[in-house]
Amino acid sequence: MSSFEKGFAIYERIKISIREKIDSGILKPGDRILSEVELANLFNASRMTANRALKELTAEGRIIRIQGVGSFVAKSKPEVALLEIKSIAEEIAKWGGVHSSDMILFKEESVSKNIAGKMDINAGDRVFHSIFVHKDEDIPVQYSERFINPRVAPKYLEQDFTKMTPSEYLLEIAAIQESEHTIEAIIPKKAIQKLLQIKHGEPCISLKRRTWSFDLVATYSILIYPGSKYKLSGKIRRGKI
């Protein structure tokens, strides 16, 4: 222990120790942090004290904690393009991550009155409905729910989305004429919290998007990002959506 650390409470010394390792590069983004038990033993402290240190580092954005998995050095928040429509795999690759995804739902169904209104079709009409959770190195970073007009993408359910993302496929087959975005801060439902592996009460960024192709509403999408992992940016260029 340095003489500088002697005047601090134990939980503060734990925080200083972890921060110094992160700032010096000993611990790199994605590296695992010692567990509460390991930190308690190392600093001759209680688990409650170690937990406080980890909670405060999480609040500061220095680490992320995944229930049942552990604590890890946080990556700097990547910027997500707000008005540009891109594949999440491209976004993740851009910031140096490794993309993977879990398919939660993938089917044809009768559309509800609410979604029908968003897509300018009739309640009861058939749509394709998919839900994916996209991950960066197995850490969930986006909940993606889409309703797709079969007239625009009739072969959507025949695609192998282990080899490409839904966005990549849709952008390839249907040029976007127009798009509409609605953004808000939300606390997602418990089922979505569980899929994103976040705690109850953690704020998220919700991006609802409609796209038009072939003079039809092609898709209505609900994209949810954990607020602790993202910041949004937007740029409008002449001639582009």
Itemize the secondary structure elements and their pairings:
Elements (H helix, E strand, L loop, with lengths): L9 H15 L7 E2 L2 H7 L4 H13 L3 E4 L3 E4 L5 E3 L6 H7 L4 E12 L2 H7 L6 E11 L2 E10 L17 H8 L4 E9 L3 H7 L7 E10 L2 E11 L4 E3 L8
Parallel strand pairs: 4-11
Antiparallel strand pairs: 1-3, 2-3, 5-6, 6-7, 7-10, 8-9, 9-10
Helix pairs in contact: 1-3, 2-3
Describe the structure.
The protein is α+β, with helices and mostly antiparallel strands. The protein has two domains: 5-73, Winged helix-like DNA-binding domain superfamily/Winged helix DNA-binding domain (Arc Repressor Mutant, subunit A, Orthogonal Bundle); 79-233, Chorismate lyase-like (Chorismate lyase, 3-Layer(aba) Sandwich), CATH 3.40.1410. Helix content is 27%, strand content 33%. The protein has seven helices and eleven strands. Helix 1 crosses helix 3 and helix 2 (36-42) crosses helix 3. The longest helix is centred in the first third of the chain and has 15 residues, at 10-24. The protein is elongated. The N and C termini lie far apart (56 Å). The model is unreliable at 235-241 (pLDDT under 50).
